[in-house]
Amino acid sequence: METTRFKNIFWGVILLVLGVVLALKNFGVIYFSWRALLQLWPILLILWGVSVLPLRASIKVILALGVAALAVAIVYYKSPQFEEKWFWQWNEDDSEWTERDWTPLEQSLTEPWDSSVKVATLKIDAGAGKYIITDTTHSLIYFFKAGNLGPFNLESYDDKEGRKLHISMKKSRIDMGKVKNDVHIKLNAEPIWNLEFNAGAAEMNLDLSKFKVKNFQLSSGAVSAQLKLGALVDTAQVEIEMGAASLTIAIPKEAGCQVKTETLLTSRNLEGFDKIHSGLYQTPGFEKSARKIFIEVESAVSNLSIEKY
């Protein structure tokens, strides 16, 4: 009984603190960067560790509040008001510590369009950052980034499954300070796409409604993501694995959708779905739908919302 009561108090305090911080942000009392907040997902592991320590409930609550206060201080420190601050950079060429002002670096990568490509697979290993897909291109892919991460490398080859594209970050200097990585991606609308994102703490706005996406995979430590899917293929498979997340998925009304969730602490908004059993939801008439979307979500702590358009 005491354990159950403490868990309610413990997570209630955490949700209360987060709610107050977000309310203060919305009213302009404080300001912080969402990217800085997402980078704090390991704090959740610390809080979970506090919850299982063999200590009195009152001591655990005090520890939890202390960790939450530390997190708020870090978020504030990482906010834009500190963006002009200098930071230390490790220079691999001369193995010396140097101090420099931060300047965004730009880079673009392009793969020409090839009409023989019917299926394209894109894998992106790009660490933390902000990722946007909103438009098409006459090339097979156009990749543009602004920030101090990178440079990036694009590998391309063909196999029996089609064209394979792999974008990864080259080994580079280590910046001990503010990290910026804004990525804009454009895809060709002709081929069938398989997409795989591997990121750290990330913000994502991915409008895939214009593309024939057969498979979509996202693996991230912490993410704030908006994902819009289309109904241009008969069956689409979406697999998402995250530490902590705020995830909104938009699906077309004409497509049937099945959602499987394996989460520790989740707030779900699945309006218009029928609950089949614990962790499994389907839209009415799913089995008879001509176009189907299968979504699987694994997350430690998340806010999951699926909307129809």
Folded structure, characterized:
The protein has 309 residues and is α/β, with parallel strands linked by helices. It folds into 2 domains: 2-82, no CATH class; 105-308. The protein is built from 4 helices and 17 strands. Strands 3, 4, 5, 6, 7, 8, 10, 11, 12, 13, 14, 15, 16 and 17 form a 14-stranded mixed β-sheet that branches. The longest helix is centred in the N-terminal third of the chain and has 25 residues, at 2-26. The N and C termini lie far apart (44 Å). The model is unreliable at 80-103 (pLDDT under 50).
Q: Tally the beta strands.
A: 17
Radius of gyration, CA atoms, in whole angstroms? 22 Å
How many strands, which pairing sense, and closed or not: the largest β-sheet? 14 strands, mixed
How many DSSP H or I helices?
4
The unreliable regions are: 80-103
Q: Count the domains.
A: 2
* Cα separation of the termini: 44 Å
Share of helical residues:
10-25%
Output the helix-strand order. Answer: HHHHEEEEEEEEEEEEEEEEE
Question: What's the gist of this structure?
Answer:
The protein has 309 residues and is of the alpha/beta class.
